[in-house]
Amino acid sequence: MFRCLPEFGPCFNYMYDQNSSDGIFIFHGFPSQKNRNKDLAHFLFESTKASIFVHHYEGIGESLGKFYFEKSLTTAKRYVDHIKKEFNLKRIHFLGHSWGGFVSLNLLPHFVNDLASLVLYSPFTQIPASKGIEELAENLMKEYPHMFFHRTHSEVCAEFKMIQQHYDYPKSLAPLQWQRPGLILQAKNDLLTPEERTRSVLPLLGQQTKYEELAIDHSFTEKREGTFSLTKNFYKDIQLV
Asked: In the predicted model, what is the mean pLDDT of residues 81-98?
């Protein structure tokens, strides 16, 4: 079912409602081409007992408007809150890819009592320090110009610094000692989200989080069936299949 909720303005979202008390939320990475994750959402709908919810950040994917990093974080939180209440979800599950991984990790402390599992595909885990921010902003603006046509390099850098200061999920996660099932699938030799940075979050996610490196691309377009199979097996282990 495709719909745009009036509460979220230009944001596009869709769902597969199975009248379930479990809901899987899929948070995408960049640039979220219009068909990105539709195959994953449909696969999870057919393979699990959960309802599936996909939210496109404002300004990219099939959403209208202009993209801002902070807005993608705050709107995602409002979206989960809204859907959780509308569908009376008892347990929620996050699946985040790349930037969607950063979104998921930042949402975890807010939904720690409701979040039953966490799946991450090559998650973006940290904003680099000092000059690394300038390089990151430059690379993103070159690769995804349609996301940043309305902004200058200095404005993007300033927003990264603000997020670095105000969205410190490791600080929020550490005292929670989260101990729920998790799965991290990491692309090998990933220049966008290096393995060592991804592994650095493992202590925050507890001993129930499994970590596996795959010989695939950062976008997870290669060996798609293998990724889906690993994901299904994870949900089977937690009795969601």
From this structure: 97
pLDDT in tens, 33-73: 556 688 999 999 999 999 999 988 887 877 878 899 999 99
Q: Report pTM.
A: 0.93
- Domains of the chain, by residue range, sit at 18-237
Of 233, 232, 180, give the one whose Cα is nearest residue 40.
232
CATH architecture of 18-237: 3-Layer(aba) Sandwich (3.40)
Calculate the CA 98 to chain-centre distance: 6
Distance of CA 234 to CAs 28, 49, 129, 227, Å? 19, 13, 34, 11
Kindly report the number of other CB atoms within 10 A of residue 169's CB atom. 19
Half-sphere exposure in the Cβ direction for 171 (13 Å, CA)? 5
- Asked if 142 and 206 count as a contact pair (C-beta separation under 8 A), the reply is no
Mean pLDDT rounded to a whole number for the chain: 91
Q: Which of 150, 113, 118, 153 is nearest to 133 (CA)?
A: 153
Cβ(102)–Cβ(32) below 8 Å: no
